[in-house]
Write a structure and sequence with these properties.
Belongs to the RLP family. The protein has 167 residues and is mostly beta strands. The chain is 8% helix and 22% strand. The mean pLDDT is 83.
Length: 167
């Protein structure tokens, strides 16, 4: 656990801009660097709670390596870029809250393979394409996708193709 936590946190510190110095309070030299108050652990890294911190930059792909992650809360920041398809590797994820950021691009279809997902909120971004309609997305309220001007309502699998000019 210590290694995966350190790899993720080091990637965050390197790839994100942190005008409020939230990430700088993390000390990689602690006996257990995962004791940082924005990270909660059980037997492994389970909760990342970096919401409402004005963090800027892209979500690190390395996040997809945290296989035991249960909750990823990055909402209400200034995170930009695409949602990494590598998040689809998080097969224990229950909560994915990325709302109120500056994310763009499509919702990765890899997320539809996370059958443990109960809460997905990507509202108030600039996502495009279609909302997945399979797997856990069958039960996610449409309000959790609102205010994404280029995001089209649930895809009709096999019935229609969409040219959404989304990349």
């Amino acid at each position: 656990m210590k290694r995966s936590c350190c790899v993720f946190l080091a990637a965050c510190v390197e790839s994100l801009t942190d005008p409020d110095n939230v990430l700088q309070s993390w000390d990689p030299n602690l006996v257990n660097p995962c004791t940082w108050f924005h990270i909660r652990t059980t037997a492994s890294l389970a909760y990342i709670e970096l919401y409402k911190n004005n963090i800027q930059g892209a979500i690190p792909d390395e996040l997809g390596n945290l296989k035991s992650l249960i909750s990823l809360d990055l909402y209400n920041n200034n995170i930009s870029g695409n949602i990494p398809p590598a998040l689809g590797n998080l097969k224990s994820l229950i909560f994915l809250r990325l709302n109120d950021n500056q994310l763009h691009g499509p919702i990765p279809r890899t997320l539809a393979g996370i059958y443990t997902l109960k809460v997905v909120d990507v509202s108030n971004n600039n996502l495009c394409g279609t909302i997945p309609s399979s797997g856990p997305f069958e039960h996610i309220p449409l309000n959790n996708f609102k205010n994404n001007p280029r995001l089209e309502g649930p895809e009709l699998q096999g019935l229609a193709t969409y040219n959404t000019n989304c990349s």
